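May I ask for a protein sequence together with how it folds?
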Amino acid sequence: QVQLVESGGGLVQAGGSLRLSCAASGSISSIDAMGWYRQAPGKLRDLVATINSGGSTNYADSVKGRCTISRDNAKNTVYLQMNSLKPEDTAVYFCTAKSRGRSWFNYWGQGTQVTVSS
């Protein structure tokens, strides 16, 4: 089992920045990729960014150029640096992890709220 705990959410004005952190614990060696998804009220949970064990990254078009995902394997932590935030970035952000051999992300954190005011 893997536990994921997010932190770093909050209220920020449009144009501001936030850095989200996700600390993983438990069966860390079983993890391949990690990432962030977000869910706005009344909408589906959508991909924000992912990073695999080799450091390759993938971003949603809506955040490309504004967000950077990174991973500190020594600290078992993944980060999401978000810049130039927009009101439409308002959502609950979920950290996620995928076990080796799995096709889908199978571990999820509780989520952290990000609110961007106009």
